[in-house]
Structure formats: C-alpha cells, structure tokens
Amino acid sequence: MFRRKLSALEYHNPAGFTCRDETEFRNFIVWLEDQKIRHYKIEDRGNLRNIHSDDWPKSFEKYMKDVNCPFKIQERQETVDWLLGLAVRLEYGDNADKYKDSTPDGAKNTENTAKNAEPLINLDVNNPDFKAGVMALANLLQIQRHDDYLVMLKAIRILVQERLTQDAIAKASQSKEGLPVALEKHILGFDTGDAVINEAAQILRLLHIEELRELQTKINEAIVAVQAIIADPKTDHRLGKVGR
C-alpha cells in the first residue's frame, strides 16, 4: 500500500517493504529521517538511529510528537503512510524547480487523445486548394453547400464514416430476406367488393408503410448528422461561422 510513495522517494525496496518486520521498520524510520524529513539536526538523531536499543520505541514516540504526527505508535500503517506523505511534501519543496514544469503521463495521453480526436483542427480553411477539394467532394457526395468549408468537410466526414466505410458498404450489400406476411391479419379498412383487388390494396398499403419507415430512418440519420455538426462548441450555426 506504500509502493507509490516509496518509489517517489526512491526507496531501495518499494515493492518488498513491510512495516510488520520490526528491524526493517526501524531502519526505514531512520532512513526517512536521515534522507527525506530531516526534522532533527544530525547530532540529535542518535537515539533514533540506535535501532537495537530497548528504548527505541520511546525515542520513536517522541519523534512522532516532534513532527506532529496525529497517530499513535500502535497505529503503525497509518503512521508510516503519514510520514511518507510528509516526506513527499518536503521532497517536492526541496526540488520545486525540478517538478514544477513536469507533466503527468496521464495528462500527456489526454492531450494526445484530444489532438487525435479532432484531426481537422490544424487545417488552413482559407487555402484555395482546400476549398476546391471540399467543394469537389461535396458535389460528388451530393452534400449541400455551406458558407463555411470546415462545416462541409465535417459533414463529408460523417457521411463517409456512416456510409462509405468497408463495414458500412458490406452491411448495405447484404441481401435482406423478407419475412412472410399474413395479409389476413392486416385490416384494409374498406372493401372494394373484389377479393383480388382487396388483396392488392393490402399489399400496396404494406409497401407504403415500409417506405414511410425507411424515410423516417433517413430523416433521423440526417438529424443526427446535423446535430453532430452544430454541437461543436466552436460552431455557431445561427451565424454560419466557426470559431470566434
């Protein structure tokens, strides 16, 4: 449970340290005071360094009071953790210039992820070649023109991701087998007086319903695509502008 702090303090055995071993624990306290905390002057550390003395627990208890440790000597794990925290704070204070400009690995990964997530951010939208290329793609894919070429490019990207990837094309190419329909279960709502015409009318109505469903699906996809564009915090769809 102390490995991270011990590693930060460059302790020689961060993975194997245990405060249950009395000798190891006492040596650890001496190391911590000598190398990191340094609360006592060198000449005042004699009693703490005498780890084989029967009076060592009393010396350690006095040390805890002197450094204002809030735990009791019996609460060994809590005491060790507190002393390690104190040592880390002091270590940072001694090397503030060394650490102030350092960036955590997690922050670096987050920054790289953000850059990768928005590949269009560094494009020169005023470049004539860029505008010509976007317009050509928009015409080819039948995407409506927009005053902002970056918005058009984002719309192109969404269309390509949803419709023109290999998976999307393979899925669209798969033949769909229709399910058998029991016409007698679908009420026509009127009677022509001819059973054959009634059946044809039922079929036409079902086909019309299927077309309406496909149309609604396309409308929903269009709404999602538009929302993906205008949801960009840099995009003001009311002004037709991107950025400030």
Automatic annotation (TrEMBL):
InterPro entries: RTRAF
Pfam families linked to this entry: RLL (PF10036)
Coiled-coil ranges (or none): none
Family (UniProt): Belongs to the RTRAF family.
Protein name: RNA transcription, translation and transport factor protein
Gene from which the chain derives: Rtraf
